[in-house]
Structure formats: structure tokens, C-alpha cells
Design brief:
The protein is α/β, with parallel strands linked by helices and 236 residues long. The chain has a domain of 147 residues: P-loop containing nucleotide triphosphate hydrolases (Rossmann fold, 3-Layer(aba) Sandwich). The strands form four sheets. It has a six-stranded parallel beta sheet with strand order 7-4-8-9-3-10, with helices on both faces. A three-stranded antiparallel beta sheet has the order 12-11-13. A two-stranded antiparallel sheet has the order 1-2. The chain is elongated, with a radius of gyration of 19 Å.
Length: 236
């Protein structure tokens, strides 16, 4: 049974009628299409995170629902406002900058238009405060928010956005890929111009397979130590 609630979406005179409880048109076949949670699907490079997001978007479309797609403005490898997978799938998305209020700028207008979910690509580039804006959208407006991104950078450190998602997410999923040795890849190596591992440079450097390589912890540590880094990462 649907109930109605008068919900203030923020801003003067912006009170709107909002459905609480189950949304119309939802099917009972997929938990993520029904349950309003903050999801974080993380992986190393090359695991198919964007493909997974695009498949999720297709699932909503197939059921007659729409989703809001967001991606980081700084990742324009395939063109601004594009989410593209290595297997050829793509979709248009709205781009967010570090200073954007995701709730006010993107989510509330989309909810007024009846979207059923929010899908965020390159979620490692979120600011911690933006993660909490996504959590607020889940808690206040009963909308599923699904984030897809890297967990750690090439130095083995958590991205700030990923750290916030690990703390705030209701449900987490690891999307798996493999190292060259066949083990699960959980780390990323950055390659220099000669193709050799490097641990120098800014944490954020946009690139694909030409710049990064998914590896297991053992092979990441071997490259780390070979580069003259301390045996225990994070120590002097």
C-alpha cells in the first residue's frame, strides 16, 4: 500500500508530494531495485565497474524506470559527461565537481522528475562531504544510491571518497579481477613512460590500461620494495 507524505525538497516553496513505502512499478526480483541503501561496489582497475553500473542502469530502464547517472568531471577520457566501459557500453551522465552539493544540485531535481535510483561512477573522486550528501538522499528520500569506484590509489592509500564510502555505506561489494599471476587483484600499479612501476606523482592522474595495471598484494609489494620504498608501507 502506498502512502503519501509532504516532503520539503529544500528551498523556498519547493514542498512536493512524495511517495513513501514501495515505489510504483517496482518488481520483486532484484534487491537493489527495491531497497533504499547506500551501496559501494569497489575494485581494482579493469574489473568492469563501469560495465556493472551500465548494466544496472539498463535493468532500471528495462523495468520502465529511470536513474540519475553521475560521474566525476575530471575524468574525461571518453568525453565530458560520458560513462564508458571497455567492452563498448556507454551512457550520458551529469558531471560533478569537488565543490558541488550533490543533493541540492543533482538529486533533488532528479527526484522531482521521478527517478528511481542514483548511480555514481568514479566514486573514489567524491569528497567525504559528498558521500554524506548521498547518504542523506537515501535516508530522507528512500532512493537507492549505488557508487562504483576504486578503493585504493597506486600508493596503496585509500582515496578520501572511498574511505568515506567504506564508513558510510549500508552495503559493500567487491567486483573482482585478476593479477597477471592469476590471483585476485586488489591493488593498482601506476606505470611511467617506459612502462615501469612508479610511486611518484599526485594521487589523482587520469588514465586507463596504458597508465595502470591491476595486481595482487604480493606483486604490488614486490614493486613497492624494488622502488626503494620501506618494507612496511606508511612508515618512514
Amino acid at each position: 500500500m502506498l502512502t503519501h507524505a509532504s516532503v520539503d525538497f529544500g528551498g523556498a516553496g519547493s514542498e512536493a508530494t512524495f511517495f513513501s513505502g514501495k515505489r510504483p512499478g517496482r518488481r520483486e526480483t532484484d534487491e537493489e531495485l527495491q531497497v533504499a541503501k547506500l551501496y559501494f561496489s569497489y575494485a581494482s582497475m579493469g574489473a568492469g565497474k563501469s560495465a556493472y553500473l551500465l548494466q544496472t542502469n539498463f535493468n532500471y530502464t528495462e523495468r520502465g524506470m529511470t536513474s540519475l547517472l553521475l560521474t566525476a568531471a575530471l575524468d574525461d577520457r571518453y568525453g565530458a559527461g560520458k560513462i564508458t566501459s571497455r567492452i563498448g557500453m556507454e551512457a550520458d551522465a551529469k558531471t560533478f565537481a569537488p565543490t558541488d552539493d550533490l543533493l541540492e544540485t543533482f538529486i533533488l531535481p532528479a527526484l522531482r522528475e521521478g527517478v528511481s535510483a542514483v548511480l555514481v561512477d568514479e566514486a573514489q573522486f567524491l569528497q567525504p562531504e559528498q558521500v554524506w550528501q548521498l547518504a542523506e538522499a537515501v535516508d530522507r528520500f528512500d532512493v537507492p544510491v549505488m557508487c562504483f569506484g576504486l578503493r585504493t590509489s597506486f600508493t596503496g592509500d585509500l582515496f578520501p571518497g572511498s574511505a568515506a564510502l567504506l564508513a558510510a555505506a549500508d552495503q559493500m561489494r567487491e567486483i573482482k579481477t585478476i593479477c597477471c599471476c592469476g590471483k585476485k587483484a586488489t591493488y593498482v600499479l601506476r606505470k611511467d613512460a617506459t612502462g615501469q612501476p612508479t610511486f611518484s606523482g599526485a594521487q589523482v592522474q587520469i588514465g586507463g590500461n596504458d597508465s595502470y595495471l591491476p595486481v595482487c598484494r604480493k606483486h604490488w609489494m614486490e614493486a613497492w620494495i624494488a622502488a626503494g620504498r620501506p618494507r612496511i608501507p606508511g612508515t618512514a
